[in-house]
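Students often ask what a holo structure prediction actually looks like on paper. The answer is less mysterious than it sounds. You provide the chain, you provide the ligand, and the output is a string of discrete structure tokens encoding the 3D arrangement of the protein together with GBH.
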Amino acid sequence: MSSTSKLPHDFVWGYATASYQIEGSTDKGGRGPSIWDKFTSIPGTISDGSSGETATDSYRLWKEDVALLKSYGVKAYRFSISWSRIIPKGGRNDPVNQEGVAHYRTFLEELVKQGIIPFVTLYHWDLPQELHERYSGWLNKEEIIQDFVNYAKICFDAFGDIVKNWITHNEPYCISILGYGIGIFAPGHKSSTQPWIVSHNLILAHAYAVQLYRKEYKEKQGGQIGITLDCHWLLPYDDTPHNLEATRRGIDLKLGRYADPIYKGYYPERVKKVLGDRLPEFTSDEITVVKDSSDFFGLNTYTTQLVKDTQGDELNGHVKMGHTKPDGTQLGNQSDLAWLQTYGPGFRSLLNYLWKTYEKPIYVTENGFPVKGENGLSLEEAINDIDRQDYFAQYTKALLEAVTEDGVDVKGYFGWSLLDNFEWAEGYKVRFGVTHVDYNTQKRTPKGSAAILTKWFNEHIQE
Ligand code: GBH
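The corresponding structure tokens follow.
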């Protein structure tokens, strides 16, 4: 293979996780409760009635996780810090928990010692419960911005000498729509007005944290900072004008609602049209902070959906998504979750779209596949994860084509996930790991897909 058909030598790859999904020890080490502790304690919220109380026990078994990463030969690891381990009550006037700071410090030092580059997410959905009770959390613009920036500052001070890659928020779409619109994620609100306030405040909190980093840390510490957005690639169900328009509207509502303000400085017209006066406005001072507030495009993406126009589903801009094609066949291979089918070509198209539209280097911060019915399989069957291997084969091929044939600037790729873990509203029933976890013993066993990805990246990154 010629070197031009490979990824550049400084391409980073690895796996991603999030604090609440793996750490467990939720009442240990001085940690305060988060909105996910509260939410999971309400009967009916999680399909198997579980919570992150134990998860993969990674707060205690972190050394095993690092050893696993090392054995896979990754270049990088993306994980998130639990805000309520750093500041148990969350606020700018509340005490800092030194035990929590020391935990992440030790963990980071071990990663770096093993030659693994940390990518750190500050907010992967686990808001300190106290802030939610004190002033309604993300709904309260003045308070939450100051408290988030204060939390970010503590992290920059404590870890910034070794962390050079920061991600403010993970998937504001999920936080706002699923947490405050549909109510299937913490804090479980159902509303047609709150999601737009929350997402506006998420954008601002992100932007002010970035402003602080750029002013006081970036030069000194030599790092970069950005945000991770999530989006499926969307294709029109057929070429009727209303389905074409619905597809564009879906992309604007799901993605442009964040990406356009952050990379271009304004909300998309279609978003304004759908939301009317429920969409908050940025002041001119705010927009100068928001515009160009991300050094890269952090992308979580899993699948492609076919879009039909609909009167319903206002939260997604009146689009209906599915995988069934007009001829009745399926777009791709079905996973364990209704919304996720394998479709590699859509990944290539999405990477092209983002590069053309936003012109920022892209890090794929999550991408992965839960094998249908895997939770019911024996260990031996589960580690023979053919459908996940096929998924990664298709998606890495699409990645390579996007970079080497289309010229898209992708700088990194993180598989979701290092381990089977707490899959939010699905509990432990859905498994995304390249490593099998036995939740009775916490024994970790590599699945076939882990070896496949190691081999693929070893062969496709330039020396
Ligand atoms: C990611 O979210 C999360 O960052 C991660 O924590 C999680 O474990 C992982 O994915 C696997 O789920 O609105 O019709 O698309 C992925 C984004 C949000 C996509 C919920 C699917 C629900 C159905 N997902 N969404 S739909």
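The chain has one domain: 3-460.
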